[in-house]
Amino acid sequence: MKKLLLLSALAAGVLQVQAQQGSYYEDLAKKSAETKNLDTVAWIHSGVLNLGINQGILHNWAAGGELASLTVNGLFNGSLTRYNGRSIWTNNLDAAYGLFYAYSNSFVPRKTDDRIDLTSKYGYRLSDSGNFYVTGLFNAKSQFTKGYNYDAPEWDTFSTSKFLSPLYLTFAPGIEYRKGSQISVFFSPAAVRTTFVSKYYTVRDEAGAYGVENGKTFRFELGAYVTARYVKDLTKNISFRSRLDLYSNYLAKDVYNKSGLLVKKDNPGNIDILFDNFIAIKFYKFFSVNLGVVAIYDNDVPYVKTLEDGTPKNEPYEGLGWWQIKQVLSFGFNYKF
After folding, report:
1. I need a labelling partner for 139 at 20 to 30 A (CA). Which of 55, 108, 131, 171 fits?
2. Does the model's pTM come out above 0.70?
């Protein structure tokens, strides 16, 4: 009888441990937050969808302003990760799109945001319990629709960019440091980056467009690449994510036109920078206040102080020079999974 009771107790203990382990891995998959570098096989996913709308109407408003306006923007950030022993395959998609409608221009939509950014990495952990991986990375960047320079007269007669033009592709072998799903730092000393753009855009300037020479459609670069990501739920209702990309092109050099005149200065020291930060403060169940700030420096996208007809731009942030800055504050729908 005692043996039977002992065997029953052991069996109950084993079942309880297995149930706890099963519950742990189920919670792990649901939360999509921490793996703690466990030797397991699992698909982990997470995503955040933000939709914001701002609307305003003025009548006989002494201070002046846009009589009627509407801004609609959407932002999606998703990740899908596959753990298989010491191997890890991570995929991140950042997509954003925004439109502004105003009475003063007959509610013709103008873009405020447009971005497609996909990163896929496959890594193999160097040790059973370490945080360093030998990793291969692929990144693709483009946009959804045509872009225009709204400062130019008759701006809608020509576009400055469109879907897959430009298209940036990066292929890079390197080393990655990962701490759970919150911190990731990848470095490659030999990253290949290619740029594809329609000749329609490169023939309009002696220096070309988006780093592609005048009249050409393709550019090849080889350089050092660093990309770091940080994701953190500061509280139950406040989430923060940040990303920093750095790229130095070993092959960068000055560009001259057919007459031998210098049309663009460049060298490996002109490091391309992307610094993207986003914070969401959630309230109730599906609503949030969102603040996003993106800073980009790219020597291939210069700041021109005048329009094509020679008229000064007269912008309030002219002192920022070649930096591309985008800041968005919105209230809207927030769905996290």
Report:
1. 131
2. yes
